[in-house]
Amino acid sequence: MPNEIIELTVPEECYLERIDRFLSQSLEIDTSRNHIQRLIRDNNITANGKEIKQNYKVKTNDIIRIELPTPQKLKLERENTPLDIIYEDNSIAVINKPSGIVVHPGPGHWNKTLVNALLYHFNDLSSIGGILRPGIVHRLDKDTCGLMIIAKNDQSHRFIVEEFSHRRVIKRYSAIVVEKPKSDHEIIDKPIGRHPKYRHKMTIMPDGKDSVTEYYLKRIWNTGNGIYSFMDIFPHTGRTHQIRVHLSSNGTPVVGDPIYSKKWQSHKVPFLLLASTYLEFTNPENNERLSFETPLPEHIENFIKKLDKLSL
């Protein structure tokens, strides 16, 4: 299997950022800064066709080329990582995914993924998604936490995919965003596609895929450091980075979003403040409707406490 090649163009907002920091935040794969440093030492990362040092600071419009070596073996390891299993029957499971863990293996991260943990905790997982995605029906971004459905066999996998395709799965996300939206309730209907220049980003584009996100404004904080809003968000489609792109396009990026919020570092949060907090769908085992809700994660609760103090 040939090595995977990734090319990224550095956007203006990342000017003079260290190469390892830029890549660890920009790559869709999960790879640590230490791993990036090893790739630089091995000359697997170049800028504008030239070898670079480990402390290289990227420039606007730099072309960064990454060659990810294929591992010697592709067998997935079972890893005893704790899982918050909310529900389980013979067909499915519902888990509460933590922030900071990538869903499935790929170049640069062949272990310590959610899939590695699923293989340890469940004897049966669907195979439709392929060898690298057993049980995975839908995904969350690495730093997005919350509820996910896991399929334990191919029949239930097909059933849940059909539910998603017909928009019969109700998903609610909770987010804290910068600024106040223009209205208390809106349905954002803007097509999304891969950014033509900055390939690690998605963007609004006329010939993109149909993408619909609905939100309700729940709370506003007016602090000396700016205005922040809490939203309940209902995505009606499931595009890559959909919620993050739609909210950013409205001038209300998710707090801590390293890709779609220019001042994300100033908030000093460990993960972006976005979580999947509610799921409702039909159980493939008995056709009964199931619903699950999870509390806000600790890093979002801590930011809310901070905002409450600042707005007194």
Rg, please?
A: 20 Å
Total strand segments = 15
Helix percentage range? 10-25%
Please tell me what the overall shape is: globular
Largest pleated sheet: 9 strands, mixed
Q: What percentage of the residues does DSSP assign to strands (E)? A: 25-35%
Number of helices: 6
**Residue ranges: pLDDT <50 for 5 or more in a row?**
none
Characterize the quaternary organization of these chains.
single chain
- How far apart are the first and last residues' alpha carbons, in Å? 59 Å
Average pLDDT works out at 91
Secondary-structure content class: alpha+beta
One letter per element, helices H and strands E, the order comes to EHHEEEEEHEHEEEEEEHEEH
Brief account:
It contains six helices and 15 strands. The chain has helices at 19-26, 33-41, 114-121, 154-165, 242-249, 298-310; strands at residues 4-9, 45-47, 50-51, 63-68, 85-88, 92-97, 145-151, 170-178, 185-189, 192-194, 202-204, 212-223, 226-235, 274-282, 289-293. The longest helix has 13 residues, at 298-310.
